[in-house]
Structures are given as C-alpha cells and as structure tokens.
C-alpha cells in the first residue's frame, strides 16, 4: 500500500490528481490511501503530528504557504518521502532541487507523464522500502525500517525492537524475512527467533553480534555461514571463517 498526499489550492486540480491516482492504483493493482490538502501549512501540521507519506504531490504557488516553504519544513521532519511538484511555474526549479524533489510536473498535467512519474515513484518505493507495515489487533501500522533494531519472535507474536521502545505484530519471522528479502532489504537471521538490522550492528564475532545499544545476540551454529556471507556482501569484505 502507498500512502499519498495531494496538496494544491486549486480544488479542481487536486480532485483530478486524486482521480488519476485512484485509476492508476487499479491498473497496477496496488492499494493507495490519499489525503488531500489545499494549503501547505495544513499538510505540514499533519506531518508534524506524526503522519508519514510515501509520495507527496505538491503545488508550488499556494496562498497560505507555498510548496517550497512547506517542503523545506517537511524535509526537516521526513527525508524519505518522495516529493513530486505539480506547478505551472518552472522558474522555481532551483528551489525544487534544494529540497530533493523526485519529479517536476508542469500544468496542464499530461496524463502519460503523470503515469510515468507515478510508476517511477512506485518502483522506487517498492524496490527500496522505507517502512515496514504490519498489523496488530486488526489495526495496520507502519514504522520506518531504519528505526528497527531487530525483530524477535515469541510463538505467534513478533516483537519489533526499536531505540524508542518495542511494538508487537502478528506474523512469522520467516514471512517477515521473506518480505524484506523480496524488497532487497536484508537483515541478519542470527537465530530462529532473531532478525537483525545491519545498521545497528556495532561489532560482529563469528558466533555473536553486539548492537549499538550494548545488546549481544548469539548466532546459532547452523546460521553462522549465511550470516558471514551476508555480512561480507553488505560490507564488501572477505568471508570470515
């Protein structure tokens, strides 16, 4: 699923973008959730409260707060979201690149261009996922992958361990590992019950890993070879034997 924000003070254009996104979601068979905003400040306030999007379609010239000012604030909060500017004013191109815009669409919107940029954004997100989405007590949640230190399974429940605290989700560790691997996101499977984010590994010995918070996790004997090979593939080093 993709979570998308559309921000344009022209109600008709915002509605057109929403319709195009809904149509494309059916064509490519991916679920989308779309929030529509009519000024930059309202979008920024929503993000300040913790909302995270995969893609933001953002107009530049808006009355209450323009898109460049909004994007500068958004980038201080969320460096991952893909921002696609939709505007009739190409003179803002320099400012657009300062906030790492993903694409730049001029008005009137050409449907073929809109579709091409949406597919590019979708592929970027699915090939390099920023969030792990999960369910617990029939509620869907998402958490940035780079905040996850490791997963720990305990029977039917998997714990998501972060520096800010722990969360619970339903799902087998094997299925979580498969989902991550299919998205080219690799965690160390150090044990039947542990899946470790390489970002948080401070030290690696052939039979254990120490994380940056001091946690030490043992590597089971039958998994040491695979862990070593993945470690070296990620680090570009020779295999430790």
From TrEMBL:
Stated name of the protein: Stage 0 sporulation protein A homolog
Keyword vocabulary terms for this entry: DNA-binding, Phosphoprotein
Pfam families, alphabetized: LytTR, Response_reg
Single GO molecular function: DNA binding
Asked if the record carries the keyword Glycosyltransferase, the reply is no
Q: Where does this protein come from, organism-wise?
A: Eubacterium ramulus ATCC 29099
Domain HTH LytTR-type spans what residues?
Answer: 132-233
Q: Which residues carry this modification: 4-aspartylphosphate?
A: 59
Decide whether keyword Phosphoprotein is in the record. Answer: yes
Superkingdom, according to UniProt?
Bacteria
Domain named Response regulatory is located at 3-122
What biological function has been recorded for the protein in this entry?
May play the central regulatory role in sporulation. It may be an element of the effector pathway responsible for the activation of sporulation genes in response to nutritional stress. Spo0A may act in concert with spo0H (a sigma factor) to control the expression of some genes that are critical to the sporulation process.
For this protein, the record's InterPro entries field holds: CheY-like_superfamily, LytR-like, LytTR_DNA-bd_dom, Sig_transdc_resp-reg_receiver
